[in-house]
């Protein structure tokens, strides 16, 4: 197991301090400047899972309230809202510097039989025929100031292969709909709760950028300020994130400095395992 894989798995195992009180580290995620939103969601879900027995999460709804500080730990307070016959509900409040940075409600369901249908997975290029994100970044690292190049090329625990990679620095306006394959090989053998936490962590990747695509923007064009505002996720079926999963995303609407984005996550066999929705801030950067 690589160091970055071990770091992520440890990030998603918050320390229990007291009954319904947990502590997660802020450092070690996707960016050194602020805590990656998926990291806070994953830690919040792991904390809630520690208070639930014999039920799996089927949905979570989170609001990002303040940016997370990677220099200090995050405290997670659990409120046991309800333990019912079929469903269990938990509310999680993430705190730093005495202030809330995230509120999340998650629901857990007993295993039951029922009818089944799903939308089919899109027919796209297989991941083996695509270049990794790291390989693509190596080709354009010269466009990044030297002081940020090491961070730009730093190995990440989640391997990503975009189906149709965009030009990061000179993008053309494109369809809001896009696809990527992602996985974490070290997830093999982890229990289903950790698989959910890893999938929740990864679900925050690239989704917010869907709303930038029709406007010819990326995070590297320097004219857009963006941040996740809320994040909802529904887990449909059990899966193992060690194998490739297809993340298909779109953005039906942007306006008023906000963008609405959706995602569906399929396993390699085409089973729909999770759905995601998110609204984010997309604010034009105006010259001072």
Description:
The chain has a 12-stranded antiparallel sheet, covered by helices on one side. It has helices spanning 3-11, 37-49, 133-140, 146-152, 192-202; strands at residues 15-18, 21-24, 56-64, 74-83, 87-96, 99-109, 159-162, 178-183, 224-235, 245-255, 258-267, 272-284. It has 288 residues and is α+β, with helices and mostly antiparallel strands. It is globular. 17% of the residues lie in helices and 36% in strands. α2 runs antiparallel to α5 (192-202). The chain has 2 domains: 1-111, Thiol Ester Dehydrase, Chain A; 128-288, Roll (Thiol Ester Dehydrase, Chain A), CATH 3.10.129.10. It has 5 helices and 12 strands.
At the first level of CATH, the class of the largest domain is Alpha Beta
CATH architecture call of the largest domain: Roll
| CA radius of gyration | 19 Å
- The CATH topology of the largest domain is Thiol Ester Dehydrase, Chain A
Main sheet makeup: 12 strands, antiparallel
Order of helices and strands: HEEHEEEEHHEEHEEEE
Q: Structural class, from helix and strand content?
A: alpha+beta
Number of helices: 5
Q: Rough shape?
A: globular
* Biggest sheet strand line-up: 1-2-4-5-6-3-9-12-11-10-8-7
The N- to C-terminal Cα distance equals: 47 Å
Domain unit count: 2
The counted number of beta strands is 12
CATH level-4 homologous superfamily of the largest domain = Hotdog Thioesterase
As a percent range, the share of helical residues equals 10-25%
Oligomer type: single chain
